[in-house]
Amino acid sequence: MMTRELYLFHSPSQEELAWAREKTDTDEHLLALTLALKCFQRLGRFAKAREMPPVVVEHVRRCLELGENVAPVYASPRTAESHRVLVRRREGVAYAPGKARKIAAKAMTRAAWVKNHPPDLINVALERLAQARLELPAFSTLDSMESTIRTQVNGQIFQTSWRRLSAEDRARIEALLVVGPGGKSDLDRLKKPARRASWSKVQGPGRPPGVGGGVGRHRDGAGGHRRLEDRRFRGGGRCCQSPQTVETVLCHSGPQQGR
């Protein structure tokens, strides 16, 4: 942890020090409460003892002018819970894990239709929970939710694309994966950046696939041998007829067509 981050996020103010001293009766409880406050302000949740870096504990201990033998320990679980209540009340945050999970799930589900990067979905959920003034769930909880929701939404996207395509459209898209005698597939050529537009290039013999001839049309080479470009799309010697395959090809070819 950098020194600047340590002093910026984990140094208690004079008002916070006065508040913590007023709420505690021992040095151990004073250190524990102050650490709980600063970590909660940084993380949005209470950190477990093993999650607290020793450098943070030592820094807060020095700010409190406590001896090196003072450790952040509680006399009982009841005291620890009362400290969490004090911190939540001070920060204006409520503890409602069920409600927090519902809000996070709703936010992730909506975002998953336009975002696919896991950190993006988790950040959307964190933003909504912060707006709702709720204590954040553990990262492992959000990570598990993100994985499940992203899989469900992606499955719906695949099925939607699949249903909107005719059998002929699906065949033409999957034909892009077939590699010809030159070692290149139509998808390879489609992914190349477009050259400067000119009428001669459009009409010439080197026109790209799909211009005048139709995307995905490919003649067999010598011996009529064809093979798939990527082993991920193989299926019993035949091109995999699946929504995932079609969606993958569309995602690879779409950005190039838009250039």
Quick structural gist:
The protein is mostly helical and 259 residues long. 58% of the residues lie in helices and 3% in strands. The strands form 2 sheets. A two-stranded antiparallel ribbon has the order 1-2. Strands 3-4 form a two-stranded antiparallel sheet.
Report on this model:
With 259 residues, this protein is mainly α. It has 3 domains: 3-91, no CATH class; 97-164, no CATH class; 167-193 and 214-257, no CATH class. The protein is 58% helix and 3% strand. It has helices at 3-10, 14-23, 27-43, 54-63, 77-91, 97-111, 118-131, 139-164, 167-175, 186-190, 199-203, 243-257; strands spanning 178-179, 227-228, 234-235, 238-239. The strands form 2 sheets. It has a two-stranded antiparallel ribbon.
Task: Quickly list its features.
12 helices; elongated; 3 domains; two-stranded antiparallel ribbon; 259 residues
Mean pLDDT: 81
Q: Which outline best applies? A: elongated
Number of domains: 3
Q: Mind summarizing the main beta sheet?
A: 2 strands, antiparallel
Distance between the amino and carboxyl termini = 43 Å
Question: If you compute it from the alpha carbons, what radius of gyration comes out, rounded to the nearest whole angstrom?
Answer: 29 Å
How many beta-strand runs?
Answer: 4
Biggest β-sheet: strands ordered side by side in the sheet: 1-2
The total of helices stands at 12
Strand content: under 5%
Ranges where pLDDT stays below 50 over 5 or more residues in a row are: 208-240
